[in-house]
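Journal club side-thread
Mid-discussion, someone asked how the predicted structure for our own chain would compare to the paper's figures. Pasting it here so we can look after the session.
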Amino acid sequence: MEKKTHVIVASLILSILLWLSVSMNGEYTVNMKVPLRVSDLPTNVALAAPIPKSVLVRARGTGWQLASSYLSSASSINLDIPNFDKRKIVFTGTDLGYSLDLGSAAQVLGFTPDTIVVTLDKIIRKRVPIVPRVSIQPRSGFMIVGKPEITPDSVTVSGALRLLMNLDSWYTQPRHLKHVMNDIDLTLPLSDTLAEITKLNERRVRFVADVEQIAENTYKDIPIKIVNDRDSTQVLLLPPTVDVTLRGGLGIMAQLTSDSISATVDYTTLLRTASGYITPDVSIPDYLQVISIRPDSVQFVIRK
């Protein structure tokens, strides 16, 4: 029984090899994706626009020839640009055929696309600020305190003049954070949108943001000062103080005193106000929010 099994297996293998031999000797037409590269680019020149990463090559040949092309690591199209005589170079299908090395005797029938336009320009370097694309959604009861920081805050970009002349910033790759309740310290990769035609001296940045629990507090009897008046004693405010309720991070609110809050009214505005009531302007430290002012308007009397 075992001998019979061996005979069956051997017959099956022989049949497969025979079929493969016949099939591979047949002629076929196929489409192959071949890498496209620019070679020998002058050191003072850069691509001003992206080119396709690959070209679809329609080829005809025997199975053995086409298999050799598929398996050959040398199969590629290399566009040779030895000098910078033109800012725009057009490579036709004939040019692509000369640059193609399939590593076999397969016949090339055509290319898609059948024309490649290479746009060149003088290379420059430009330093631009980095803009983080980070969406942060704090957990309920928490908030971002202050302005997030990135290190480094700028990047040097090398590329074609016409490409970089209007470039004013460089973005990080997007990141979305939800239900955040702790300080944020991330490493963010920079966007690779123009990676094929630009070079960056940095690839990643550090992103840091402070997250604190939200706190509210009311600061009572903040005196109202009159500005732009030589003799403020001529103005009577009723009442002369206000209570200000602020919201902010717990750490900042814990250190805040009434001295950091000011309330003012402008004398020239009083002269133009016929109602006899005015809302004070309240100044507070950065990254805090005014929730309410009580009273929200005060009466004023200008003595003659």
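Post-session note: The domain at 214-302 is CATH 2.170.120.30 (RNA Polymerase Alpha Subunit; Chain A, domain 2).
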